[in-house]
Amino acid sequence: MDRIAKAFLSGTALLVVAAPAARAADLPVKTAVPIEYVRVCSAYGAGFFYIPGTDTCLRVSGRARFEAGYIPVQNRSNSSGDLSQYRGLMRMNFDARTQTGYGTLRAFLRLEAASRTGVFMTSGTQQRIANAFPATGQDQFGRVQNFLVTEKAFVQFAGLTAGRASSFFDFYAHDYELIGSTAGSDVPSTNLLAYTHKFGENWSATLSMEDPNFRKNPFYASSIGLTGTVPGQSGLNNVFITAPTPVILGTNTDGTANTVAFVDAVQRSRMPDFVGALRYDAPWGSVQLSAAVKDVNIGGFIANSAVSTLTPAPSAAAGPVSAGTAAALLAARGVASGAQTEYGWAVQGGLKLNMPWIAPGDGLYLQGAYGEGALIYTGFSYFTGTYASQLGPVQGAPFVHALADAVVNPLSGRIDLSRSFTATASFLHYWAPEWRSAFFGSYGEVSFSRGTREAFSLVSGLVGASAPPIGAAFAVSPILRDNYQIIAGTSLIWSPVKDLDIGIEGTYIGTGPLSGRVTDSTRPVTVGGLPAFTEKRYDTTQIRMRVQRDF
């Protein structure tokens, strides 16, 4: 009996042990997931790693920057008087590269965000091009500004570059400067489609189709003193959907206009800009020759915009002219209605010399540009500001200088292109591995066709102060004056450790008419109807310091 009980208990125990084993054998076997380790990618330089599970190499980098500056202002009225300036900036870069049978496939992204305050740190240029937004408080408007922009977003493949990138026209592009003040083309963000072909030893040629909206400086367009006379002249904060400019339909015996019609001088985006660049790169430096062609266009006549001092009225003020009368006067003048297009162009030559025989890292840039109807390509207005036809060279300046790509001649009704040129030099010297300085300067001029300014003065009786006045005051009016700008500066930068810059930079800016004098608008005193105070040139300085860490 005992033997039977022991056998039963032993059998039961075996069943208990064997049953789980049998059930486990029926279940699928689970394999551990392999761990993907981040691997270094050495094919494209330091900092790249393979994206796990792919053959694409990625480099993540960035920048943090603080800047503060000071610019003196003599005139502290009319909203002027800001002296200090500040900026905190963030940059993030993503560089992804994959090796293919056609070469490297690359995608590059750069985001920038910043808070900036004060004169010349906030940027009217960037607001006008929709790259920044301003504060709206009474004490903040025009002084506090933020932005978040796609600075770069392009694809490169087999010689093709497509996306948002730096213009292929540019060369020096303020490479050695902290502030970026000298005259010269520098458009770091534009939409483009380009092809680059490498040939010979160190040679390359690029043909680029680029977004025209980032290279259009406006026409000089007048305004008139009669609210609502010109339909479509509506907007916010002096931003007009149309920019009316006059064409003379009839004149008085002294040649001054008594009847004008208005043309819409806003440039439309009709044709891409075409840029070509031929470049040579060698251990001793680089050479580049760039050329660009662009359209300069206006719309047609603004409906029901014609006005005349001959229209019966209780005063000498201008009154409306009927559409039929305006059409007849246009036909009599032989002025064709409708849109017009001229073609602006620019050429630029640049040379960079590496000078390690002076000190490792030393270099010299020389650059010159000339253009017609292409002010942003020559970069004459880089410091003062772009996307405006006239601006004061600095806050509180006693006069404005003309920055228009073109003017509609009121006598001929045709487009007159402005002419501009710039010349720039910049030298970088390392005093020691951790100390360096840049020395830079530029000179530029902008001028208009002979007789254009005189023709524009003929409409002053109808458009007011936006045209040069008739008489003795014509000689001192800043409107459409040929002008120049000189910029010179130097910096001192300390890099105590790798990728850290602590620097200071000072700049001189001098602006004036090419000949004669202009009215000092900050002292509006007249004697016998003429200004008592005039200026030959306006000089100012700017100083800025920076702390920057790249990683």
Brief account:
10% of the residues lie in helices and 45% in strands. With 551 residues, it is mainly β.
Topology record:
Layout: H1 2-26, E1 49-50, E2 57-70, E3 84-100, E4 103-118, H2 124-128, E5 133-134, E6 144-157, E7 160-165, E8 190-199, E9 203-210, E10 235-236, E11 239-240, E12 244-251, E13 257-264, E14 273-282, E15 285-298, E16 307-308, E17 319-320, H3 323-333, E18 340-354, E19 363-372, H4 375-378, E20 390-391, E21 401-402, E22 406-408, E23 415-417, E24 419-432, E25 435-447, H5 452-457, H6 460-463, E26 483-494, E27 500-513, E28 518-519, E29 526-527, E30 530-531, E31 534-535, E32 538-550
Antiparallel strand pairs: 1-2, 2-3, 2-32, 3-4, 4-6, 5-6, 6-7, 7-8, 8-9, 9-14, 10-11, 12-13, 13-16, 14-15, 15-18, 16-17, 18-19, 19-24, 20-21, 22-23, 24-25, 25-26, 26-27, 27-32, 28-31, 29-30
Structure report:
10% of the residues lie in helices and 45% in strands. The chain is mainly beta. Strands 2-3-4-6-7-8-9-14-15-18-19-24-25-26-27-32 form a 16-stranded antiparallel β-barrel. Strands 12-13-16-17 form a four-stranded antiparallel sheet. The chain is globular and about 95 Å long. About 6% of the residues have low confidence.
Biggest sheet, spatial arrangement of strands = 2-3-4-6-7-8-9-14-15-18-19-24-25-26-27-32
Low-confidence stretches: 11-25, 224-239
* Total E-strand runs: 32
Helical proportion?
under 10%
**What is the distance, rounded to the nearest whole angstrom, between the alpha carbons of the first and last residues?**
86 Å
Q: Report on the biggest sheet.
A: 16 strands, antiparallel, barrel
Estimated structural class: mainly beta
Rg is 32 Å
What global shape is seen? globular
Strand portion: 35-45%
- The helix tally amounts to 6
Mean pLDDT: 88
